[in-house]
Each structure stands twice: as structure tokens, then as C-alpha cells.
């Protein structure tokens, strides 16, 4: 078990460095460490999460669907091993959010929201779950084939001309008719969240 932990920590170190440097070679090297750790002890949900998160990073950056799907599978295996880890629900929500973006399909966003909500039922103050919830609600609507398709975006880096003919929904747009705050807005207030 200690050698499995050693491989896991080595993989996490490479994944962290790979993210910081946006070095896909380091990220892919981390997968080899995770694979060795998994071969020694396949009952570690945290290992599956670390592996999934590393794959997701590369999958999103390089728009590789197979990596996003692999991430989703690993997280689901992690949840099978231990269903009460908020990190797993966060990762599954992020995977679904990315699949919604990739396929331009609203149902993935709705599934992501369900996963974030379940994670929040386990850890109501987890900032990553609240951030994921905000991402799933923070959408750009675009008319395609007579249907509005929503996708999550990072509005901080969107150029204004790319929004022409589209509907941008901000966190401010989530307020209800009676003026009460949406749970995402309330979380931003409670946990000092900010946006650009």
C-alpha cells in the first residue's frame, strides 16, 4: 500500500506542475504514475479522482472528447467505491459541464447541476462545488436550428464581437422575481466570491 501511495503522490506532483506550466507531457507522465498506483491498489477513490482530473485538464485544453469521457468513467468508478466524497461529485459535474460544451447539449448542464447539488448536500460550504454550480449556470445562449443552445463560458476572456447574436446569462440574471437570491448568488455573498 505504501508503494501505491508513493506512485499516487508522484503523479499528483507531476499533474500539479503540468497544470501550472500547461505542460501536457508532464500531465501524461502523471497518468503513468496513477496507472502504476492503481495496479497496486485499485480501491482508491482519491487516486481515480486525481487521474480523472489530470485527464480532464488535457481533454479540455486540447478538446479531446476521449479524455473527457475517460475522466467521467474514472469518476463514476470512484463514486462506486465511495459515494460520499464531495470531490468526486465536483469532478463528475465538471465532466458533464464540459460534455455539454462539447456537444452543445443542455441536458449535460442540467445533469452537472444535479451532481453539484448532490455534492453540496454532502459539503454545503465546499467552494469548488459552488464554483462548479456557478459554471453550470453561467451560460451563453446561441440559436441553432431554431433552438437555443446554452454553453458555459468564461466571460472574462470573451471578446465582445463573439457575443453578437447570442444571449449572455450572468450571475446577476439568476435573481428570482421576488428579489431573493439564487443559491449560486447567495454562495458568492457568503463565501466572498468574485467575478471579473
What is the secondary structure topology, with strand pairs?
Elements: H1 2-21, H2 24-40, H3 45-61, H4 65-81, H5 86-103, H6 106-122, H7 127-137, E1 139-144, E2 147-152, E3 166-168, H8 183-190
Antiparallel strand pairs: 1-2, 1-3
Helix pairs in contact: 1-2, 1-3, 2-3, 3-4, 3-5, 4-5, 5-6, 5-7, 6-7, 7-8
Q: What does it look like?
A:
This protein has 196 residues and is mainly α. Helices cover 64% and strands 8% of the residues. It has eight helices and three strands; from the N terminus they run αααααααβββα. The chain has helices at residues 2-21, 24-40, 45-61, 65-81, 86-103, 106-122, 127-137, 183-190, and strands spanning 139-144, 147-152, 166-168. The protein has a three-stranded antiparallel β-sheet. The longest helix has 20 residues, at 2-21. It is globular and about 55 Å long. The chain starts with a helix and ends in a 6-residue tail after the last helix. The relative contact order is 0.08. The model has no long low-confidence stretch (mean pLDDT 84).
Any key phrases for this structure?
mainly alpha, single chain, 196 residues, 3-stranded antiparallel β-sheet, 8% strand
Order of strands across the biggest sheet?
A: 2-1-3
Shape: globular
Unreliable residue runs: none
Main β-sheet: number of strands, strand sense, barrel status?
A: 3 strands, antiparallel
Percentage of residues in strands = 5-15%
One letter per element, helices H and strands E, the order comes to HHHHHHHEEEH
In short:
This protein is mainly alpha-helical and 196 residues long.
Amino acid at each position: 500500500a505504501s508503494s501505491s501511495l508513493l506512485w499516487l503522490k508522484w503523479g499528483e506532483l507531476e499533474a500539479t506542475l503540468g497544470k501550472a506550466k500547461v505542460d501536457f507531457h508532464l500531465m501524461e507522465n502523471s497518468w503513468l504514475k496513477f496507472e502504476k498506483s492503481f495496479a497496486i491498489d485499485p480501491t482508491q477513490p482519491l487516486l481515480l479522482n486525481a487521474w480523472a482530473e489530470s485527464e480532464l485538464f488535457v481533454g479540455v485544453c486540447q478538446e479531446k472528447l476521449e479524455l473527457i469521457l475517460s475522466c467521467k468513467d474514472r469518476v463514476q468508478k470512484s463514486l462506486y467505491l465511495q459515494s460520499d466524497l464531495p470531490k468526486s461529485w465536483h469532478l463528475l459535474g465538471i465532466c458533464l459541464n464540459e460534455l455539454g460544451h462539447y456537444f452543445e447539449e443542455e441536458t449535460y448542464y442540467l445533469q452537472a447541476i444535479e451532481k453539484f447539488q448532490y455534492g453540496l448536500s454532502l459539503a454545503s460550504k465546499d467552494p469548488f462545488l459552488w464554483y462548479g454550480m456557478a459554471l453550470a449556470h453561467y451560460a451563453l445562449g446561441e440559436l441553432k436550428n431554431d433552438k437555443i443552445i446554452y454553453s458555459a463560458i468564461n466571460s472574462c476572456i470573451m471578446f465582445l464581437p463573439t457575443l453578437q447574436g447570442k444571449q449572455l446569462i450572468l450571475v446577476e440574471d439568476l435573481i428570482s422575481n421576488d428579489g431573493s437570491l439564487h443559491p449560486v448568488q447567495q454562495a458568492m455573498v457568503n463565501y466572498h466570491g468574485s467575478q471579473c
